[in-house]
Design brief:
Blueprint (H helix, E strand, L loop, with lengths): L2 H18 L9 E8 L2 E8 L8 E6 L4 E6 L5 E5 L5 E6 L5 E4 L5 E2 L1
Parallel strand pairs: 1-8
Antiparallel strand pairs: 1-2, 2-5, 3-4, 3-6, 6-7
Length: about 110
């Protein structure tokens, strides 16, 4: 499955969720800044309107397989090993607040 197909599937899923779950709202934005040493990433998460503490963060392949899972600490900090393949982070900030961040969106420190 190529990246364009995955992007279409994610858009369709988000559209369906928005239409079928109007009581939920999606997070407005996330800023992830990381420092990398080889493939080890030490990151800080900042969210609009939501505490970044103790959130579930999954490293996902573009074909939607979970490669690894971590969580943020009370300050929104987390670590993960970047896979060799293309990936994105899927961040679960609670009901209705699930979003993805690709490595191209990580702010360099």
């Amino acid at each position: 499955m190529d990246a364009k197909t995955v992007s279409r599937l994610l858009f369709t899923a988000a559209t369906l969720l928005t239409a079928t779950l109007p009581a939920y709202s999606f997070a407005h934005g996330a800023d992830v800044s990381c420092e990398a040493e080889d493939s080890h990433h030490s990151c800080t998460l900042e969210l609009d309107e939501i505490s970044p503490a103790n959130l579930s963060i999954e490293v996902m392949s573009l074909d939607l397989y979970r490669l690894s899972k971590t969580s943020s600490n009370s300050k929104g900090e987390f670590n993960f090993i970047a896979p060799k393949q293309k990936y994105f982070l899927l961040i679960d900030a609670g009901p209705g607040h699930v979003f993805d961040v690709g490595p191209d969106n990580f702010a360099a420190n």
